[in-house]
Amino acid sequence: MKIKNNILIGVILFISCINKINANAINEHWINSNHSSIVLKVDNKITDVESDVTVVVDIDMESDISDSDDEVIDIESDVLEVVDVDMDTESDVFELNNEESNIETGIPEINTDIFDIETGIPEINTDIFDIETGIPEMNTDIFDIETGIPEFDEGDIETETDVVYSDTRLPENVLPVAYRLDFYTSIENSTFDGKEEIDIEILKETNSIIFHSENLSLSNITISNENEILKPNSIQYIKESNFVTLNFNETLKSETNYTLHMQYSGKLNSNGIGYFIEEYDNEDDSQSRMAATQFEAADARRAFPCFDEPQLKATFQLNMTVNDGYNALSNMNVVEIKEIKNLNLKQKKYIFANSVKMSTYLVAFMVSKFQSISDKYNDIDVSVYVIPDLIEDAKYSLKVAIKLLEFYENLLKIPYPLPKLDLVGVPNLVFGGMENWGLINFRSESILWNEETGTDIDKYGVVTLIAHEIAHQWFGNIVTMKWWDDFWLNEGFANIATDVVEPELGITNNWYYEYYSIFSKDTLDKINSVYNYSPNPKYLNDWDIISIYNKGESIIRMMEFWLNKMNDNHSISTTSIEDNYFYKRIHEYLDLYRYNNVDSQQLYEMLESYDENGQPLYHVSGIMESFIKQKGIPIVMMERISNDHDQIITLSQEQLISINIDQYEMDNIEQKDTMIKGNSTWVIPYSYSIYSNSTGKPELLESHYITLEDNDDRKSKTTISLPTKDDEATNTKIFIKGNEDQKGYYLVQYDDESIQVACEWLKSDLNFMSYINRAGFISDIFNQLLENRAENPTTILNCLDYLKNEKSTIVWIKILKYFKRLIYIRYENNMEKNKLIMKYISDLTKNIFEDIGWVEKEKEGIEKKSGIEDNTIINRDVLRSNLMDLGDQNENNRAKALYYYNEIKNGTYSENFDEYILINIFETGIKYGNVDESDIDFILNELDSETSKFDKYSLMSGLKQVSDASLRKKILEKFNKDIENGFNLDDYDYQYFKIELLTNWASEDYYLYFTFVRDHWDDYFKEKYLNDNYELIYLIETIYSKSKKEDEHFQEIASWINVIDKEEKKINLEDEIIDEDHNNNNLENEENDDDPIILWLKEHY
């Protein structure tokens, strides 16, 4: 870099002091800055350089410690400054003096008996180091801790820079071995300070060390070994990669151990990443604060300088100093708590044990006033920490956590390696959970369950989430991916225990309907491949969470099933784990790579078996690579070919890309003309089952497991032979079911003869196939119907009539999802066709609707009483919700909803309805009932009542259906009085629902709602606008769009928007708001008199 000189005299020192006082603000501004240039202030001269160029400061130093303390450089704030630190300033700017207290914290400097100020090297060599106060020294020889600016001798800056390291990954010349971190956290000031030592090994001779730091102020950087102490002669910072580069005059020798020393400080952010602060309400309406961490994927660098890549594992020893009243947690157990008294401050220092080797993203710590409940599993202390008011509702999570530890230890044959496991409920956590080793964070409500008021659905959510995060203690923590492209190795294994730990929930096969959305999105080519390389984990847009988590899990489930079957193990049991090929190999995988990093190929090698010639038996790598590295989903087409004596089935494959795309999806999919056929093929672990009625009833004969090769010749087909018919058994029929137990990540297409045989048997004996195989078969043929892949659509439509007697909840949940595609995509805007479809659905669902009901009458043993394995509380609740989603067009829904609405209005109902059912009741009651002012008064009074039995969203959902203009005005008058009287304005959800309601109505009478917003702009809406209330912004955009089309009030509305949005520019007036009644032009929504589905419906309904 060349620095051009430009003269500016007199203001530098003043500006520098101001920047020094507001260092954290500068850093906050810097990280969000989009400015095109930065300013370097050096020796009373200003230079503009482009922001992409690294700031480099060359310092001509000897290997001993310099005395320079007159100038400082901020390497992270985009500003290089000259500051006279001894100048006399206003009282809020203090002189840096090593012998005085830290002004911000009021705590004396560290005891130099423990830490040598001159060398920066601790004088004790133990696994746990103790800095007496936990507050870093203010040694101004190198960096200023308050401003985070390195100091140097004036006049020693060179104007040229060396070539800057430009890769986005750290170089492979330095290996971190051990971190020692000493934190002081001030919850009151939202700040933290720390001192750090990192033991490193030099793998390759170098003159520089590169590590990560983001939004931190660094100071007092040195590196030492047994013989010398070195200071960097230049420091570089690259904003894009967060690299800090320390350049040395001396060569750091390979195979030599050094210790890197530095101090750092930062501000607790409110973004929920890095080291962040959260506020929460207590039961007495007071507010409290706590601090926690969220480092995945690359945010440990926001809390302390580190080598922030997953393959750079090291041990971590933490000390946490906190003010009186707070407690501290970290990954490891506490070995000592020291009481510290400094001036008027009373503090505690928590000293934690040294950790096992782990990645930086798994480091965690927390400062709070939480309370805990604890128990033991073997010698492991298990605790749950939550807000004190919620401690009673944490008992269930503690019980589940202990069960899960026992389950995973038995399954994986590897003990949990830490002495404790803490589960922490963090208010407003960005993610549902984070698997920090030994200190798992959860969104607080996600681990709370009350036995008296909690539902089974709530319990299911708690169990599923805790099971996922505890699984990570092995998958991800003990063995970690080398880089984030193999993140699926962590996440794909993390959902294997829920049904085992809580069998009474009956959720063994829930994955099948829960992952319907993955299949549907994959057929639309809307999710990325599971493997998706990005050199920078900050680019989270490159991550497809659905693919990594859910598709990855589906592929692992497929391989588990197939490998066990190939090894003649026809059942997977967690109690006889020694018989399970898959988990035997997983144990070996975890044991071999314990505390290390792997890539996907290393997993494949562990799962494979080899013949005597060393050739793979199962083609694990080929199968996994074809599914992990490709987008999309294959469909296997089975075609029966018969002659007088022999029957064969031919198998071929292609990528299925759906033709059922709504307009919004179509607009976002590129290359629409190539949507009908994909170009990918897979190595498929294919399974099929042969059924025959040779004994007089349909029965399973045998199952087979083969590999369908990835063949570029699309005409190439695999042939399988079927059992030959007995000449005397002329009535014997055979049916081949593809994808046994639906474990394969592929769809199956059947020929017309196979569909006829299977459906004939389903109508006479539907249990000849298990419920999960029935669900798969019916889903596959329904998919053929929707995708125009059926030989004869009427064969499938006639088959679906068997559903009138189907009792399986999983079958119904799956089928209703396909019906919804007919309603909301294929025939979305055709009222006549939709009515036909709904009449058909009402007929098919009548029996199951009566069985499921609107309220669960029995809470235990339903599946035993009914004889239906999947007829569990959870599944019934999910099915009930899906039936409700059909809405008021379903005749079964409408009549019952109107009945319950009238009971509610008259005060005669006694049921305890779930929220989604109440929504259905109020929406249907208002839309189809004889609504008058009394109905509106009833709902408005319930909204105001603090003792109402109904949640506000259900009530507001009813108001959305009000169509009478006079009744809408009555509701607006109520909202108007609320604003004038300040009533309920602090109820965030209620206010959100109000704006949503106005948006719902605005398309019909936009000017009425415009005047309401305009008249209450200053006293109500403006604050929400300034706080980025997107529902309000969308309401205004909707009003603008409607006025533009109708033109009558357009100029008035446009002028008003220009005034209120002049400064902030939050409202987008360029994009058109698409009306809900837009014309959907997808392939299947065009009028078609020959549509076989509609022709069949007209004939039968």
In words, what does this structure look like?
The protein has 1101 residues and is α+β, with helices and mostly antiparallel strands. The chain has 31 helices and 36 strands. The strands form ten sheets. An eight-stranded mixed beta sheet has the order 12-11-15-9-8-18-21-20. The longest helix is centred in the middle third of the chain and has 22 residues, at 545-566. The protein starts with 11 loop residues before the first helix and ends with a helix. Residues 1-162, 569-575, 663-676 and 1073-1086 have low confidence and may be disordered.
Q: What value does the Rg take, in angstroms? A: 33 Å
- What is the global morphology? globular
Strand adjacency order, main sheet = 12-11-15-9-8-18-21-20
Q: Residue-averaged pLDDT, rounded?
A: 79
What is the SS-derived class?
alpha+beta
Number of helices: 31
Low-confidence stretches: 1-162, 569-575, 663-676, 1073-1086
Question: Largest sheet at a glance?
Answer: 8 strands, mixed
**Strand fraction:** 15-25%
How many angstroms separate the termini? 79 Å
Let me know the number of strands. Answer: 36
Helix content: 25-40%
